[in-house]
Amino acid sequence: MSMITIALPSKGRMKEDASAIFERAGMPIVAVGNERSYRGKVDGHDDIEIAFLSASEIAREIGAGTVDFGVTGEDLIREGLADADRKVEISARLGFGHADVVVAVPEIWLDVDTMADLGDVAADFRSRHGRRLQIATKYWRLTQQHFSGSHGIQLYRIVESLGATEGAPAAGQADIIVDITSTGSTLKANHLKILSDGVILKSEACLVRARKAEHEGDARIAAIVEAVRKAV
Amino acid sequence: MPLINMPEFSTHLLDEFAARGTARIDTPVIQPAAPFLDMAGEDLRRRIFLTESETGESLCLRPEFTIPVCLRHIENATGTPRRYCYLGEVFRQRREGDNEFYQAGIEDLGETATANADARAVNDAMQILHNLIPGRRLNVTLGDQAVFEAVVRALGLPGGWQKRLIQSFGNNAHLRHLLMTLASPQAETGLSPELAALLSQDEAALIAHIDRTMEETGYSTNASRSPREIAARLKEKQSLAETRLDGSALLLLSEFLSLEMSLSEAPAALAGFADAAGLAMGAALVTFQARAEAMADLGVDLTKVTYRAAFGRPLDYYTGLVFEVSRDNAVLAGGGRFDRLMTLLGANEDIPAVGFSLWLDRIEQARAR
Fold first, then answer.
1. How does residue A12 score in pLDDT terms, banded at 50, 70 and 90?
2. For residue B124, what pLDDT is reported?
3. Which residue in chain B is spatially nearest to A131 when comparing CA positions?
4. What per-residue confidence (pLDDT) applies to A1?
5. Could you read off the pLDDT of B284-293 as tens digits, one per residue?
6. How confident is the model at residue B79 (pLDDT cuts 50, 70, 90)?
7. Which chain B positions have a beta carbon within 8 Å of A171's beta carbon?
8. Is B103 annotated for ligand binding?
9. Alpha-carbon distance B225 to B211, whole Å?
10. Which of A90, A200, B98, B341 could be disulfide-bonded to A101 (CB atoms 3.0-4.6 Å)?
11. C-beta of residue A115 within 8 angstroms of C-beta of residue A151
């Protein structure tokens, strides 16, 4: 019988919360070797193996089909994979790791509350400032989908930001940001506000399945999904 | 070095260009990416091949010729008017077709007799395609950004709405969405009481308030938008929110966008539309008619050219004519007037520009059929 591989976050709250859910689902996870090993197994299920990976690697591996399931944030799935819905299926929403991907602008932009406002500002930006409106983000794909796809805004430039994105406007690296926020307190501390229609994605940790042909009719796959859904 | 995968009609094409008094220009295959992303927007990023230099400069494989040709012209500072032609490979990530293929075309920079230059561009594209694909019927579609802008301006909407509509010309889904918003009562924008109080003051007090807040929050040192700009747009926004397009204006705009007819009928039909609607569209109609006449003078059969009022490209450097020549739903040539591009790319003076490019892979397929 073929092995089923489940990729789980390798550290932090996400790792603990994911382990707790699998425990409740009757699939207690034990590390192979010592506590800090990156391989694991499920007690009583010899045909399931666990790979502990970083959250963004998990998105990539499910997309490539090298693992069967993974637990990761929906934001990383939608950002990391082109055509995500064709490659993967969100089998269960797990109720932790809540975070929204949002468009945030300086609070002092009193005239900007909506994406339409932002579109107006972006349209004039080049003629006023000699350059396009700049957005600091690590979410290239989600930003493009939201700006161009949903709101017809083309005229902006993305400035890649891999950390402390909230500080980019005050530091002059960008005009606005697209970033993840759970409570909004970091945004507030940096005098940024979320646009009223600026929530791009309400993300949380999900059990995600790679869409593979061999999963069809495999009762074990359906059983894992069912068990996790009940444990949430 | 001669490239052996060039389309077999390349020599013929270069002769066509030479016969039209154009000078061939070459541009490097590897280009700085910023001008393309600046001009066309971030969406282009997914469709081009990007790489980085050792020093971190963002580079791409040439995705088209117009921007490199214009940049080369600015760099060489050879003066205008100039007519350039090009033929070479371009690189794009496409759903259909190869990722590398040939394009050729003409860019006409600095010709101030714009109606004649427009007509010449359309005529050149049509003639060259007729010569390459003899005896086949080609569909020619023409649109005009300036005519749409004239209609929007004549309707007397607030400046902000005019800008929104003009920006979205060519993106029909977005344009329809805007028209629906204009037709329905606006949701109150929900100004905070504090903001409402600020707005009731004079502009100087509002600017001072914004300035003070920026100081307090440590934002001002890097502020891209000044207190004056924010205050001005806040006032503009107030008028935006209070605007509702009355039913008749909305009908007029929709009626205009649905216009489609042969170019031979279009000047009279547009004049009739303006008269019936009581819109003063002045210069845009004069230019439109002059272009049509110049095309007829060059021997273009205007009854075989379709004018479609909603046909445009949602890029802010297109200013007037746009056109397309297609066969069996494949676009073989696309062109237009882009008077704003040269200054956006760094030219010191306004340089009127019109041009077109030919999709050689599709032309090759059309010839084979």
1. confident
2. 97
3. B38
4. 66
5. 999 999 999 9
6. confident
7. 222
8. yes
9. 11
10. A200
11. yes
SS3 (DSSP) at A120 = helix
Domains: count for chain B:
1
pLDDT for residue A128 is more than 70: yes
pLDDT (0 to 100) of residue B326: 96
Tell me which residue has tokens 């060259």: B128
* Cα distance between residue B340 and residue B315, in whole Å: 10
ipTM, interface predicted TM-score of the complex? 0.82
Instruction: From B193, B181, B198, select the one nearest B243 (Cα to Cα).
Output: B181
Tokens for B255, please give them.
């009626």
In chain A, the percentage of residues whose pLDDT exceeds 70 is 99
Residues 121-140 of A with CB under 8 A from B: 121, 123-124, 126, 128-129, 131-132, 140
Among B3-17, B210-224, B307-321, which stretch is predicted with the lowest mean pLDDT? B210-224
* CA separation for the pair B37, A229 (Å, rounded): 44
What angle, rounded to 10 degrees, do the helices at B227-242 and A115-129 form? 140
Which residues on neighbouring strands pair with residue B100, listed in sequence order? Answer: B91
Q: Please give the share of chain B, as a percent, with pLDDT higher than 70.
A: 95
CATH of domain A99-202: 3.40.190.10
Which pLDDT value is given to residue B67?
96
Query: Is residue B205 situated within a structural domain?
Result: yes
Determine, yes or no, domain membership for B119: no
CA distances to B37, B99, B176, B215, B273 from B309, in Å: 28, 32, 14, 49, 12
Three-state secondary structure string covering chain B = CCCCCCCCCHHHHHHHHHHCCCEECCCCCEEECHHHHHHHCHHHHHHCCEEECCCCCEEEECCCCHHHHHHHHHHHCCCCCEEEEEEEEEECCCCCCCCEEEEEEEEEECCCCHHHHHHHHHHHHHHHHHHHCCCCCCEEEEEEHHHHHHHHHHCCCCHHHHHHHHHCCCCHHHHHHHHHHHHCCCCCCCCCHHHHHHHHCCHHHHHHHHHHHHHHHCCHHHCCCCHHHHHHHHHHHHHHHHCCCCHHHHHHHHHHHCCEEECCCHHHHHHHHHHHHCCCCHHHHHHHHHHHHHHHHCCCCHHHEEEECCCCCCCCCCCCEEEEEEECCEEEEEEEECCCHHHHCCCCCCCCEEEEEEEHHHHHHHHHC
pLDDT tier at A52, thresholds 50, 70, 90: very high
Within chain A, which residue ranges are assigned CATH 3.40.190.10? 4-98+204-231, 99-202
* Helix, strand, coil content of chain A in percent (nearest 5): 40, 30, 30
Q: How close, in Å, is residue A3 to chain B by CA atoms?
A: 35
Specify the higher pLDDT residue, A205 or B45: A205
- More confident: B364 or A183: B364
Q: Look-up: residue for tokens 């089923």?
A: A4
Which homologous superfamily is A4-98+204-231 in? Periplasmic binding protein-like II (3.40.190.10)
Residues in chain A: 232
Q: How far is B189 from chain A (nearest CA, A)?
A: 8
Nearest chain B residue to A124 by CA distance is: B163
